Amino acid sequence: MATTLKGKWALILGASSGFGESCALALAQAGVNICGVHLDRKGTLDHVEEVIQKIKKTGSKACFFNVNAADPEVRKEVLDKMKEHLEGKSIHVVMHSLAFGTLKDFVGEDEKLSLSQKQMDMTLDVMAHSLVYWVQDLVWRKYLSTGSKVFAMTSAGGHSVWSTYGAVSAAKAALESHVRQLSFELAKKGIAVNALQAGVTDTPALRKIPGHEQMIEFTLQRNPGGRLTLPDDIAQTIVALSTLENHWLTGNVIRVDGAEDIVG
Q: Which CATH architecture has domain 9-256?
């Protein structure tokens, strides 16, 4: 059975661009109020304001926080402020779409060109471990309840290789492991946790990867659908899955890539 989304709340980590932005707008169109966490500098704040205004034009509420989502103290402050907006309601959708990590080879030509321990730790903390810490606090504060859905964005990079992508690949693999463990622990609470594996998508995060032009060209030749994945492909999937009343679909890595990853 399907449930109406109107009046429910979503928390989107990484809400100002790429997958997070598209999901925020699609959920708002479905009547969901959006709490967005993002980290933007002055040059991109005008775009963030455009996203907020688009959400409000749908009739949904929007509260955005320009902060570092991986900072424990910041997380506490955001959750404290969210309490005022929720007005006793639970959060129906949580989306983890944080894309901030170091792109370096593990073993470069010299030490300066190689990934450091600090960079490895930071990449995994932001792109993987932060999912666990946010979900912990959301559960302990009773912001999640039976029927809540948690989604985390992963990629084929979690089980394949690309130059300079090693730390991010490790983060995606860890993220998928965290999704499995969280789904196992939260099943009795009726909270579903799944990862969505997007195909190659032209987002700001992709454009930071050295060689992304070749990656796009290769994907266009490889994908059976003959195109890249779009942020809206992910957004519409999350909207559809969020309407499901049952919580039995949990612990999965769900491909949303037009069969791209299964092509040899």
A: 3-Layer(aba) Sandwich (3.40)
Longest Cα separation, the chain: 57
- Cα 255 to Cα 42, 134, 237, distances in angstroms: 35, 24, 10
| pLDDT tens digits for range 153-178 | 999 999 999 899 999 999 999 999 99
- CA 155 – CA 210 distance, rounded (Å): 17
Q: Which two tokens stand for residue 80?
A: 């404290």
The two three-digit tokens of residue 163, written as one number: 């130059």
- Quote the pTM value: 0.95
Which residue ranges make up each domain of the chain?
9-256
Q: In the structure encoding, which two tokens stand for residue 116, read together?
A: 């450091």
Q: What is the pLDDT of residue 1?
A: 61
Strand ranges (E), 159-251: 192-198
Output the six-digit token pair for 54: 């688009």
**Angle 18-103-208 from CA coordinates, rounded to 5°:** 35
Q: Give the C-alpha separation, 174 to 198, whole Å.
A: 16
| Nearest of 167, 7, 154 to residue 91 by alpha carbon | 7
Instruction: Using alpha carbons, select from 54, 68, 44, 67 the residue that is nearest to residue 23.
Output: 54
Tokens 């860890």 appear where? 174
Per-residue pLDDT for 117 more than 90? Answer: yes
Which of 78, 94, 75 has its CA nearest to residue 27?
A: 94
Distance CA 213, CA 211 (A): 5
